[in-house]
Fold this sequence. Notes:
It contains three helices and 28 strands. The N and C termini lie close together (about 5 Å). The chain is globular and about 55 Å long. By secondary structure, it is mostly beta strands.
Amino acid sequence: MCVFRVGFMRILPSFDGILRPCPTDPFRIDAYITPPLCPPAATLCKNSSNHCANLEIVHGNLFLSWFSGYREGWEQTGIAFSTLGLSNSFFNAWTLPQVIATTRVRKFSTQNPVPFFDRDTEILYIFPTRQPSKEKMLQDDPVPGQESLGKILVTSTHISSQSSSHSSYNWKSIQTLNNANGTWGRNSILKKLDGSWIFPVYNESLKGLGHSNEISQLFIRQQNGSSSTKILPFSTYWNNNPMKKSNYLVQPSVIRLISLQPKLRVYYRDRRAQFIYTATSEDDGSTWTTPIATSLPNNNAGIHAIRLQSGAVVLIYNNMSGETKGDLRNILTISLSDDYGETFPFTRVLEHHNPSTTITDESRRFGGLGPTACDCYSYPTAIQSEDGFIHIAFTYQRRTIKYTKIKEEWIRKKGLDAPLCQ
């Protein structure tokens, strides 16, 4: 959708959740999710800040969750979700978002939701992380050292195939999954061959001593029968396995390279802002090789990997290196590999900054944009549906979540990038 200026007013993309074919690229469909309202007690907030999306498929519907509030790290930031039916989603719309009430808490910020639908029990889980909030002056870092005090929580709802509408999400009371300080989730949960779960997490409890003290871990929820719904207490149902030599490496994204085979691959975000790192496991995640750098750059920002039905591996990331927070996370790309994630010869741009959408002091004054609004496109998530479509969501200027729908063939048409749909 075009963006242009009329005097000091600016016509921006429609944040209405409606899926629209791209005028310059008929093989791509986009939508901008309607942002939730500000937390009632956030008197400074005029338009919510939205970040850290994650996708799941629940009985044929896309389920999208992210965190929303005045700004990251501030109190009453909570978990929002929206759904999209896949059966007729070519011309369709995302539902108006809801915020899970128990995730908006005074003096705490609830972030980084990881949704997981257990098809055996028809239970949809969300694993967010909650940290103490600390209100700060507007020019200060919105996410200072209280990240080291974050704890992973869990809430859930039973969704039967007969009642999978948006209104049937009745969330249970939120509980603490693990009491360890500084542990955060980010990327998708993967099932092991024996039915156990691999929940990739990372720990920042010693972040104040330097990034070399940040590590990645795997929470393994042990298999206790296919119909078991018990996941608490943590000490009974989970193991915590540190990942080999993962200092500086966080937000692991784990994929299975071959269906029904035990070989896994993980990709890491690099706190040194140099490269995406990778390691492999031959025994379904019990042991891992030493991480090595890939040829793909990393800017100390979120990444996400999936394996497609064809066997190809897809990785989404900001195609830049160097510490590039805020406005400099402004190129988001998708790359494809045909050799089990070793090399990525196919790369296309999903989003790059269009100067006509630049966030200015003018738009902050007249548009009511929050202090974390930026010219940034980051923290991607992706999932493939049975019909072969690849569904992608990512942070759009911290103002909303943008959704993009493509097929594998679109990625393979490298060098054919048209002006992006905005």
